[in-house]
Amino acid sequence: MTTDKVERAIARFDRITETLDARGGTSREAAKRERQRLNRGLGRTAGRVGVAVVAVGVLTIVVGMLMPIGMFGFLAAVALAVGIAAILIAMPVREGIAPPSVTPDLANGPMVDRFDSYLFRSRKALPAPAQAEIDQISAMLPRLKETLVRVETLDPAAQDARRLMSLHLPGLIDRYANVPAGYRGESDGEGVSLEQRLVDGLAAGRAKLIEVADNLARADVAAFETQGRFIESRYGEGDGV
């Protein structure tokens, strides 16, 4: 009997270790994507600063050709360039700090990126079981993005995914975060704890996002098969032109 207990304990430890390793890998991938987004934001800011400095320089040269600006004029131009650069650098460049909003001009790809960033920033404030669900959602977002970028924002499946990423899941997380810590261990009228309700909601949202990604991918497969059969029937050996 002791041997059985030891074996069960070892097996349980192995399962927990595998789960933690998987979560760690998912978290690292999410952090990597966030760093890449931040680097792109810094690159865009550097580009805007460079354009502004060049514009001020060109303007200074043009004015100097029309009238002498003197040392004070030159210093004023330098101060203007520095001021514009400081303003551009101080402007927020990171996307996804707040829950993403559904707007007609926001494409599906950036929508997924903003949601991914929101999950990464919200994860630490959630309990461990909810973090596990967040990790699983984050792990499937690259596949979801790959399918969503090929459809229009008004596609019904895309609309379902966009509502989940911009309204329902962020709303669930934000409402949980608003509950005082001392009340999070309580159960609701159905005997379900707030933590479990959060986990169940995240799991339901993840299942729906997986369904959207699978349906879009299957539609692509069906379209490919249809095109292949058409070409075979139209241009196959023995068919006329």
Question: Briefly, what is this?
Answer:
The protein has six helices and no strands.
Can you walk me through this structure?
The protein has 241 residues and is mostly helical. It has two domains: 2-90; 108-235. The protein has six helices and no strands. It has helices at 2-66, 70-90, 108-122, 128-148, 156-178, 194-235. α1 crosses α4 and α3 runs parallel beside α5 (156-178). It is flat and about 75 Å long. It starts with a helix and ends in a 6-residue tail after the last helix. Mean pLDDT is 77; it is low at 92-97.
Please give a handful of descriptors for the protein shown:
single chain; mainly alpha; 6 helices
Rg result? 27 Å
* Structural class computed from helices and strand pairing: mainly alpha
- Share in helix: over 70%
Number of domains: 2
List the SSEs and their pairings:
Layout: H1 2-66, H2 70-90, H3 108-122, H4 128-148, H5 156-178, H6 194-235
Helix pairs in contact: 1-2, 1-3, 1-4, 3-4, 3-5, 4-6, 5-6
